């Protein structure tokens, strides 16, 4: 499967770059958003998607203070539409796990009203030792919650001193969650690019690209937007080995849009991965027959450099055909 990414300038977010633009951090399966990064001082360190593709987590660090920040969204399945229920569903299990391996002190639960008038539930505790290692790590949490979504902010700092409370409290006071916001296709596409291009987590990228495709509006937000999202979704499935879904995405797209060549190219990749060189050859030919229909600035990949096809170099007839197509990409 080719490892190049269609340039989605309308979606790309440079997660680990300085001078970052803000974007909507959203979950794939529930409403609400948090605008991130929360300030220019925060440098992104990781992004992940847990609980079978339902719970996104993005982590930041303030390099000046060494405060760590994690932002998490997840569907509220507690049965109570409150911030307290979200807090207790998270903090209870964390403390049970910590108490089996660590020394935990100063456990507190509280609530506060933000300057915007929203109630936020809080929790904090100090981990003085992990196993036998002193760490003095203060942890502060803030939670929003309604009937749909829980939003969590987790701040932590090792080698904690009492004067550091101001740092944590200041970050907590800036925490804002828009519970009524309904994510759109562009939001899901932006999240997908974090996983695809930022950390190369193709399984998680596929979750968000699928949601982006499922919610494409009419009219499309940009020319050829659906084509780009479909292509990225197909590659995401293919990159983590779900050839069946990758194939299905392209077959459905061809029924709706038979002139776009990358759908056929992606099918050829799927064919080659499934050891069907006859079908791969047919789909490659169909792709190159439509090469004039690539997007502005886009070109068909060179199949001779694609690892889906390179394993068939010893098939002289197939590889000769591949080389004839390869010459057309020069």
Class of secondary structure makeup: alpha+beta
Number of helices: 10
CATH class of the largest domain: Alpha Beta
- How many discrete structural domains? 2
How would you name the CATH homologous superfamily of the largest domain? Answer: Mog1/PsbP, alpha/beta/alpha sandwich
**Would you tell me the overall average pLDDT?**
91
| Major β-sheet profile | 7 strands, antiparallel
Number of strands: 9
Reported by name, the CATH topology of the largest domain is Protein Transport Mog1p, Chain A
Strand order of the largest sheet: 3-4-5-9-8-7-6
What is the helical fraction, as a range of percent? 25-40%
Task: Please give the alpha-carbon distance between the first and last residues.
Answer: 20 Å
Describe the protein in words.
The relative contact order is 0.12. The chain has helices at residues 83-99, 165-173, 185-198, 202-214, 225-239, 243-256, 261-273, 277-289, 307-310, 316-327, and strands at 23-25, 34-36, 43-50, 55-62, 67-75, 102-113, 119-130, 133-145, 149-157. Residues 3-13 have low confidence and may be disordered. Strand 7 and strand 8 form a beta hairpin. The protein has 330 residues and is of the alpha+beta class. It has 10 helices and 9 strands. The chain has 2 domains: 27-173, 3-Layer(aba) Sandwich (Protein Transport Mog1p, Chain A); 200-327, Tetratricopeptide repeat domain (Serine Threonine Protein Phosphatase 5, Tetratricopeptide repeat, Alpha Horseshoe). A 7-stranded antiparallel beta sheet has the order 3-4-5-9-8-7-6, with helices on both faces. Helix 6 (243-256) packs antiparallel against helix 7, helix 7 runs antiparallel to helix 8 and helix 8 (277-289) runs parallel beside helix 10.
């Amino acid at each position: 499967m080719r490892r190049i990414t269609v340039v989605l300038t309308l979606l790309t977010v440079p997660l680990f770059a300085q001078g970052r633009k803000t974007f909507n951090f959203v979950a794939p399966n529930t409403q609400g958003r948090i605008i991130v990064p929360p300030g220019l001082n925060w440098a992104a360190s990781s992004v992940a998607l847990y609980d079978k593709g339902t719970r996104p987590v993005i982590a930041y660090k303030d390099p000046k203070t060494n405060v760590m920040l994690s932002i998490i969204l997840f569907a509220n399945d507690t049965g109570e539409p409150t911030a307290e229920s979200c807090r207790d569903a998270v903090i209870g299990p964390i403390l049970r796990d910590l108490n089996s391996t660590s020394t935990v002190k100063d456990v507190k639960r509280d609530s506060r009203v933000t300057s915007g008038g929203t109630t936020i539930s809080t929790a904090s505790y100090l981990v003085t030792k992990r196993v036998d290692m002193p760490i003095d790590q203060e942890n502060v949490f803030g939670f929003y919650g309604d009937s749909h979504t829980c939003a969590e902010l987790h701040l932590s700092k090792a080698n904690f001193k009492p004067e550091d409370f101001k740092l944590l409290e200041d970050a907590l006071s800036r925490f804002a969650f828009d519970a009524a916001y309904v994510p759109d296709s562009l939001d899901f596409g932006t999240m997908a690019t974090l996983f695809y291009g930022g950390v190369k987590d193709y399984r998680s990228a596929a979750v968000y690209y699928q949601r982006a495709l499922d919610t494409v509006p009419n009219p499309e937000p940009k020319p050829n937007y659906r084509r780009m999202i479909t292509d990225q979704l197909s590659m995401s499935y293919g990159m983590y080995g779900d050839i069946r879904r990758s194939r299905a995405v392209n077959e459905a797209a061809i029924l709706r849009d038979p002139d776009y060549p990358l759908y056929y190219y992606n099918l050829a990749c799927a064919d080659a991965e499934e050891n069907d060189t006859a079908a791969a050859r047919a789909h490659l030919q169909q792709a190159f027959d439509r090469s004039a229909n690539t997007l502005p600035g886009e070109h068909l990949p060179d199949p001779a450099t694609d690892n889906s096809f390179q394993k068939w170099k010893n098939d002289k007839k197939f590889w000769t055909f591949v080389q004839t197509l390869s010459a057309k990409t020069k």
